[in-house]
Amino acid sequence: MRTHHHSATTSSAPNYNCAIMPNTNFSGQNLQGVNFSCADLSGDNFSNCNLEGAIFSSATLNNANFNGANLTNANLRSTNIIGATFVGANTNGADFTCSMSQ
Fold first, then answer.
1. What is the pLDDT of residue 11?
2. Alpha-carbon dihedral angle through residues 36, 38, 39, 41, given to the nearest 10 degrees
3. Contact 33, 56 (CB under 8 A)
4. Which CA distances in Å does 95 have to 2, 56, 57, 76, 77?
5. Quick one: DSSP state of residue 9?
6. What is the residue range of 83's domain?
7. CA–CA separation, 7 vs 48, rounded Å?
8. What is the largest CA-CA distance in the chain?
9. In-domain check, residue 42
10. Any domain includes 2
11. Is 78 exposed, middle or buried (0-12, 13-18, 19+ CB in 10 A)?
12. What is the CATH number for 98?
């Protein structure tokens, strides 16, 4: 059994590290703690998702929809978020350091 210093939800979360998944509809899903590092998620729909603690570092999120999503403490460092929307999203504690939005 693997032990983690994170919650049980994080240890069982799917890993989409470096996945190529443009225009995927994740709307309304619980994706807490999921690893999307380096993934191409251009045009994906994350509206109303629970993305608390999710890891998007170095991911491509151009034109992605995060409207109404919970991004509390999510890692979005060095992401490409040109055209992405965050209307009504909770971004408390989210890290957008070095992210490209224009």
1. 54
2. 90
3. no
4. 27, 10, 9, 5, 6
5. H
6. 16-102
7. 21
8. 43
9. yes
10. no
11. middle
12. 2.160.20.80
- The DSSP string of 23-72 is T-B-TT-B-TT-B-TT-B-TT-B-TT-B-TT-B-TT-B-TT-B-TT-B-T
* Residue 64, in any domain of the structure: yes
* CA pair distance 42, 79, nearest whole angstrom: 11
pLDDT digits (tens, 9 = 90+) for 25-58: 999 999 999 999 999 999 999 999 999 999 999 9
**Number of folded domains in the chain?**
1
Distances (CA, A) of 67 to 47, 55, 92: 5, 18, 14
Tokens 């994080």 found at:
10
pTM of the entire predicted model: 0.87
The residues facing 65 across adjacent strands are 45, 85
* Inside any domain, residue 47: yes
Gap between the Cα atoms of 99 and 91, Å rounded: 14
